[in-house]
Amino acid sequence: MAIDFIIGRKVGMTRIFDDVGSDYPVTIVEAGPCEITQIKSSKNEGYSSIQMGYLEKEVRHTNKSEKGHFAKAGVPAKKILKEFTFDELENIELGQKVTADIFETGDFVVVSGVSKGKGFAGHMKRHGFSGGRRSHGKNSVMRKAGSIGAGSDPSRVWPGTRMAGRMGNENVSVKNLEVTRVEKDKNLVFIKGAVPGAKNGIVFISKI
């Protein structure tokens, strides 16, 4: 079983044309190159996984324990580390490079990342509330949430009540996205549709 996951950086969005001239939106992701920094086995750690590193980190920003960790793997210090569950460890080696070569046009992937943070948002923007009626006799209720519970019973607000609060900046996974083009020499993967996060955001891609 070959490695079918990688760490990448969202470059941005564009559109590409197919053979019949139709265009569709794609997200460009710089997938790797990554290096394997640690291998965990069922015998030693109780489960099998691979730790992967992405983007080189300056030595002056690396503490002593990190230096030892990367030196053991024989790779430069990395900014981003991510652990992926993986059972077939026979042909995996420390320091092994993982690039966009693992993808082919037509593959379907799951992309995970942190969504754009939108700050503190009200009920309508955050949850899609319709607001109050704009008929006569109404005053300053157009963007209000309305009642949040009875006063006598239960005399409290139920946990999970949809209210104003911080919006976005959450871990999001989008499934069944299609790889439409791979530029292996540049480590670029073109994924049909949108993926979570802003430009230059870190994303994790796994084949389905």
Provide a descriptive summary of the structure in words.
- Helix content is 7%, strand content 40%.
- The chain has helices at 64-73, 123-127, and strands spanning 5-17, 23-31, 34-40, 49-56, 78-85, 97-98, 108-114, 119-121, 165-167, 171-183, 188-192, 202-207.
- Strands 1-2-11-10-7-12 form a six-stranded antiparallel β-barrel. It has a four-stranded antiparallel beta sheet with strand order 5-4-3-6, covered by helices on one side.
- By secondary structure, the protein is mainly beta.
- The chain has two helices and twelve strands, in the order ββββαββββαββββ.
- It is extended.
- The two termini are 13 Å apart.
- A hairpin with a 4-residue loop joins strand 10 and strand 11 (188-192).
- The protein has two domains: 5-117 and 172-207, Translation factors (Elongation Factor Tu (Ef-tu), domain 3, Beta Barrel), CATH 2.40.30.10; 118-143 and 160-167, no CATH class.
Question: Could you name the key traits of this structure?
Answer:
mainly beta, 208 residues, Elongation Factor Tu (Ef-tu), domain 3, six-stranded antiparallel β-barrel, four-stranded antiparallel beta sheet, 12 strands, 2 domains
